[in-house]
Amino acid sequence: MAKNTSLYFRIVEGRNLPAKDVSGTSDPYCIVKVDNEVVARTATVWKNLNPFWGEEYTLHLPMGFHSLSFLIMDEDTIGHDDVIGKITLSKEAIGSQAKGIDSWLNLTTVDPDEDVQGEIHLSLQLPEGTKKTILRCQVIEARDLAPRDISGTSDPFARVIFNNRSAETSIIKRTRFPHWGETLELELDSEGLSGQQGTVTVEVWDWDMVGKNDFLGKVEIPFSCLHKTSLLEGWFRLLPLGNNEVDVGGKLGALRLKVRLVEDRILPSMYYQPLIDLLVESLISPAEVNSITLLLSGEVTTVESRQDVAMTLVKIYLGQGLVVPFLDYLNTREVNHTTDPNTLFRSNSLASKAMEQFMKAVGMLYLHEVLKPIINRIFDERKYIELDPCKIDLNRSRRISFKGAVSEAEVRDSSAEMLQGYLTSIIESIVSSVDQCPSVMRVAFKQLHKRVEDGEPTFISKQIDHGFFFLRFFAPAILTPKLFHLRDQHADTRTSRTLLLLAKALQSVGNLGLQLGHGKEQWMAPLHPIILRSVACVKDFLDKLIDIDHDVGEVPQRAILLPSVIVKEGYLHKHKAEGTQLLSRFAFKKRYFWLTSETLSYAKTSEWQVRSSIPIRCVCAIERVDENAFQQQNVMQVISQNNDGQLQTMYIQCKNVNELNQWLSAIRKVSIYNERMLPSFHPGAHRSGKWTCCLQAERTVPGCSRTHSAVTLGDWSDPLDPDVETQMIFNQLLQVLFFCAADGAESIPQLMKPGQSVAARLLVVIEDLEQAHVTFQHREKEDSPSVILNP
């Protein structure tokens, strides 16, 4: 039974941070680590002791994790950045909160002895037939140790301690992946073994020629475990000395975080098929259509869970080729159950949430094609724009004119002119994008228009079309481009104001200009003429958009990752390892990369016609590279297998850690179903006759670190996974049925009417899935060893 772990976290804001600069302020940013691996970095908020970030991330971690850390840093232009403080949350602490963590947490000091990572491979036994009782410990190897030296490596040695006796391995210089292969023996006193008390401790240290050695981690094994098995061998996670993090009473400031952990055990596919069959049957059989969906869309579900359910159902029905009928059912029900046409699709119903998630799932690439050039232009130009007289700052507007001071009227006129130019570009890009819009999206809107038109006047149906397309799709993307992956960072204050004014204007276009002149924001009047002129163009655009001949059943099952669709592109620096060539930091050349579901290709420029490429089906691993391999940060490697079965490695450097994680995640997603993925890799490079990571000489020696091919960032491009998605629906159904049972047994059949036959079968399917989970959990307990150390 597989494990599926997803971690959701949002770095909201900081407060009362200490000043680290001579100016009496700081330039804070946040680094996020999962088990000491950097997974995200926020933008730097300059000269602010109460920074707001509002950045959120989703991580899929199939192998699980142990801790999540937030490190607040002060960015310095010269020299190393200063550490302000950190917050570390264990997996157990996060998981103990059913609704997640949403609170202010004080920053604590950073203790190097607590900042440990990695694992050590040990074999311990009490050999029989010897004259004296001895403890034999074979210290085989370690991996992913913390770098303690300026070179980005360590000089590790191990020490075994028991009953006031100790023995040490040799020191291996300049590596985080040492191979000792040494056997250490401790002679034991028979009197001291009474009751089998005590703990065997294995410590790992970084040797320093000058000063004291640096602690790298420890393993503690109860001595009684060695009497229960003849040989105890395995990889053990290194632990810190102890929880010495000191809460200094808020003197280092605090951080507001939102963190939620979702952890599921995923059964084999065969166990989920009955529930998928019921989901399909309840949709295609009109007499049974209300059975399951009513359970998931009723008042017993929260707004947050409704959004998760909406996204999951959209993915399930995308995979089944039934997403349009699914949306059609929800939208028809919404129309039939809404008494006031002005409130249609205005609530957080399952129908409105499903349409939102559907547009993100199938329309994100389309959105990028339409908006990204204009958004990039707004970010690059960074104009000062303001229409509200109460917010105009004449000091910021001096660059508008070289004739001296400018008046408020001049600022407004200049701002209106620039906004009109931006808005014109946005509208023109949207109304000319009919052919770019995915066919599945066009058919869904055709069906939506038809259902609303059947139940409401034509005028209302056009309002609904505009509302979804502009108010729930284009306008939010303009307001917060980072959340729609249009930009890597949030906008600064000046650009954010421009985007907000444009989003307001586009919302007015989406509302067909009906509210113009009636609200409090009369200062938006300079944009009213262009808004009214745009309404006619937008109406014509919607008419063309839904003028499509496809029937519902002819829509492709999934229009997200078609072979020709570019998932990600941009300039990176690459070096391909060949033969015994010396790899240096200067060997990286700037190239333009394209990623589709079939190939990873690159050329000198984006216009270059001759491209080199790697078939995605040949990719075996996508991993980070240690900094000391090239003395360069943010380097990844793509390992592929050629037609002769030989492994080839291409090293690629990204400009920052966020870009690195985005490319790692994107390539992993398109290759996630490859059958030849490697279990291990070398995080270093092979040069000067040896690997820089583990110091092994043979180029073809197996990797010294575990691969992370299934670890990805969650976003719109997540591949379909029917088992995970159906497990999520099963969990939600359990919660709803539990709520109904607590409220009264008669609630269940009331919610399920009129599809009683499917309802009865649904209860049987849920009981079968519950029993399957129980059975597999029992099997896991029976198969697991009696002693579990450092899970």
TrEMBL record:
GO terms for biological process: cellular response to calcium ion; intracellular signal transduction; negative regulation of Ras protein signal transduction. CDD domains: RasGAP_RASAL. It comes from the Eukaryota. Residues 1-105, 116-236 form the C2 domain. GO terms for molecular function: GTPase activator activity; zinc ion binding. Residues 305-511 form the Ras-GAP domain. Signal peptide: none annotated. Residues 565-672 form the PH domain. The keyword Metal-binding applies. Keywords: GTPase activation, Metal-binding, Repeat, Zinc, Zinc-finger. This is RAS protein activator like 1.
